[in-house]
UniProtKB/TrEMBL annotation:
Keywords (A to Z) from UniProt: WD repeat
One Pfam family per UniProt: WD40
PROSITE patterns per record: WD_REPEATS_2 (PS50082), WD_REPEATS_REGION (PS50294)
Domain of life of the organism encoding this protein: Eukaryota
Protein name, UniProt field: WD repeat-containing protein 47
Classification lineage: Eukaryota, Metazoa, Ecdysozoa, Arthropoda, Crustacea
PANTHER family reported for this sequence: NEMITIN (NEURONAL ENRICHED MAP INTERACTING PROTEIN) HOMOLOG, WD REPEAT-CONTAINING PROTEIN 47
SMART domains the record matches: WD40 (SM00320)
Segments annotated as WD repeats: 81-111, 175-215, 264-298, 310-346
InterPro entries reported for this sequence: WD40/YVTN_repeat-like_dom_sf, WD40_repeat_dom_sf, WD40_rpt, WDR47
Length: 346
């Protein structure tokens, strides 16, 4: 049985250890909601949809959450319709929370300055047109040497990953190596990031050496060539890589030891999103089987991992994102919803 310090397994009435995440708020759109990301402060989250609409919603007070909670609509603090000419596929906040970027199947990236006090965009947005296909994912890296933000973006088309200097709004590097569309990007601090691709590989990149430092094929076995890498994440220590694949496999990989720890199947369909919780004790995965699954990583990672379905949508789940400090998360789905899930206080 879980203890008070372990919010994921606080006991419920049935005496089992299944966490009871409640749908606190649900934002309904007219089309599939592809992406949502928490602001680094945790005070709000941005939501991007196939309807081309960008919204920023307020993160609610959770202290009075009860088991009999009725889901309500979040407070929308900012809304921009026709933000792109196409669907909004991905979005990202800079680590300082003063920049937000969006990517679309209109092949553009939009970069905006964000004012957290007024919850509004400041000044002119920058439109970046270096991609020649759908922009599938992006992440920011702080360049400590000159205190500027760099935006890493990738997607379909030429299979290149672009690095943009946010101070000037200029792409200054195109990283080649993948032979298939880039589906996922993730950074865990410092100058390193990883990319996952349709070509079934994950590449590790270091901006200091301006190139790829390692290539792995996570879910491959002697009899099976692996599967397209739909989602990637690295834990804050940089030791553990997790990948989610289009064949429903997730894999755990020991970065320093350069070896696969294990492959497991928490879903019955594509794993479109994979993220460590803020403490890195849990893994949240989102799948095309309409489910969000929590996997416990606190034990021996070579043994079968305890997984439990913690939330469900009416259609494919496209993304799941943890709050930066709370044990709560947002999910987006083809059912046109972005839902915030949390545990009632024990």
């Amino acid at each position: 049985m879980g203890t008070m310090e372990d919010p994921a397994t606080s006991g419920n009435k049935d005496g089992d250890a299944k966490p009871r995440f409640l749908a606190v708020t649900s934002l309904e759109d007219v089309q599939a909601v592809r992406c949502a990301e928490f602001h680094p402060s945790g005070r709000f989250y941005a939501v991007g949809s196939n309807s081309k609409t960008l919204r920023i919603c307020s993160y609610p007070k959770l202290s009075d959450l009860r088991e009999d909670h009725v889901t309500y609509q979040p407070t929308v603090l900012f809304k921009r319709t026709k933000h792109h000419k196409g669907s909004i596929y991905c979005l990202a906040w800079s680590p300082l929370g003063d920049l937000v970027a969006t990517g679309s199947n209109d092949k553009t990236v939009k970069l905006m300055r964000f004012n957290p006090d007024s919850c509004n965009m400041d000044g002119q947005e920058v439109e970046l047109t270096m991609h020649d296909g759908t922009v599938r994912d992006m992440c920011f890296i702080e360049d400590a040497s000159n205190k500027s933000s760099l935006l890493i973006s990738g997607g379909a088309g030429d299979c290149k990953i672009y690095v943009t200097d946010c101070a000037t709004g200029t792409p200054f590097q195109a990283l080649s190596g993948h032979t298939g569309h880039i589906l996922a990007l993730h950074t865990w601090g410092g100058a390193m990031f990883v990319s996952g691709s349709q070509d079934r590989t994950v590449r590790f990149w270091d901006l200091r050496t301006r190139g790829c430092v390692n290539v792995i094929t996570p879910a491959a076995t002697p009899t099976k060539p692996g599967a397209p890498v739909a989602s990637v994440c690295v834990d804050p220590s940089g030791r553990l890589l997790v990948t989610g694949h289009e064949d429903s496999v997730c894999s755990l990989y020991d970065v320093r030891g350069s070896r696969c720890i294990q492959a497991f199947r928490p879903h019955s369909s594509d794993v479109r999103s994979i993220r460590f919780s803020p403490s890195a004790y849990y893994l949240l995965t989102a799948g095309y089987d309409n489910k969000l699954v929590l996997t416990d990583l606190q034990g021996d990672l070579t043994l079968p991992l305890p997984s439990v379905v913690v939330a469900e949508h009416q259609d494919k789940v496209i993304s799941g994102r943890w709050h930066p400090t709370d044990f709560s998360f947002i999910s987006t789905s083809a059912d046109k919803m972005c839902t915030l899930w949390a545990l009632p206080p024990v």
